[in-house]
Amino acid sequence: MSDIATSAGKVRVLSREESFAELARRINELAARGPASVGLSGGSTPKAFYAWVVRTGALTAEAVARIDWHVSDERCVPLASDDSNFGHAIRGMLDALGVPAARRFPWPVELAPAEAAATYEAAWAQRSPNKAFDLCVLGLGDDSHIASLWPQCPLIGQQTGPRFTATEWPGRGWRLTITEAGLAQCGAIVVLVSGKTKAPAMLTITCGDYAPKCHPGQLLRAQAHKVTWLADTDAAASL
């Protein structure tokens, strides 16, 4: 394991299982202090994390009982869909661990996108007016997108306003996503990154000229003090 300090936060170079163990450790640590919220991510790496958690029993009984589970972004599809991020969390981990229904907080995807986002935001405002997730887990796209903040997304640059909103990603449909304002209110942010195809994006995000409209992951520079990248050697090869 090695650590690299960057403008977008600390990069910890780990194997996949080491990354999973570190993420589980952080979740368990939160739960040991009391009730907390975790915003999960979508993609193949989180799905592998869910399977690893179930296989290894890495999450404590406190984590099962005390953590409120969310996803940082979601597609506007039913939870039963294979495209649903929260659906994968349910099928891959939450059901197997026996997480109670009261600790599960999917986006209300049965509503139209704008209404779903407004409903989710209103629920957060009632429950936690000044803070978003205690721990926000993100992935990184080859195009350097994070959550559903994609290159040229009109939400980029909006540092105030709702913490959660809806956006139409050209060619990919409507998404529900955490915003810059939401990221700023998270207690900590962990980005899981693996594979050599992510190396160019990681280099641009941490070392490139600042152009977040083109490279949305650069938005994390503003939150660098609370961002940890859990990256394998391929993803971190250019740093």
Which stretches are low in confidence, meaning pLDDT under 50 for 5 or more residues running?
A: none
CATH architecture: 3-Layer(aba) Sandwich
Note the run of SSEs as H and E.
EEHEHHEEHHEEEHEHE
Which strand order spans the largest sheet, edge to edge or round the barrel? 1-2-10-9-6-3-4
As a whole number of angstroms, the C-alpha radius of gyration is 17 Å
Q: Find the CATH topology.
A: Rossmann fold
> Structural class of the secondary structure composition?
alpha/beta
Overview of this protein structure:
The protein has 239 residues and is of the alpha/beta class. It has a single domain, classed as 3-Layer(aba) Sandwich (Rossmann fold), CATH 3.40.50.1360. It contains 7 helices and 10 strands. The protein has helices at residues 16-33, 44-56, 61-66, 85-97, 113-127, 180-184, 199-207, and strands spanning 2-6, 9-13, 36-40, 67-71, 73-75, 135-138, 164-169, 173-178, 188-193, 227-231. The chain has a 7-stranded mixed beta sheet. Strands 5-8-7 form a 3-stranded antiparallel beta sheet. A hairpin with a 2-residue loop joins strand 1 and strand 2. Helix 2 runs parallel beside helix 4 (85-97). The two termini are 15 Å apart.
Keywords:
single chain; 239 residues; alpha/beta; Rossmann fold; 7-stranded mixed β-sheet; 3-stranded antiparallel β-sheet; 7 helices; globular
Brief sketch in words of this structure:
With about 240 residues, the chain is an alpha/beta fold. It has one domain: Rossmann fold (3-Layer(aba) Sandwich).
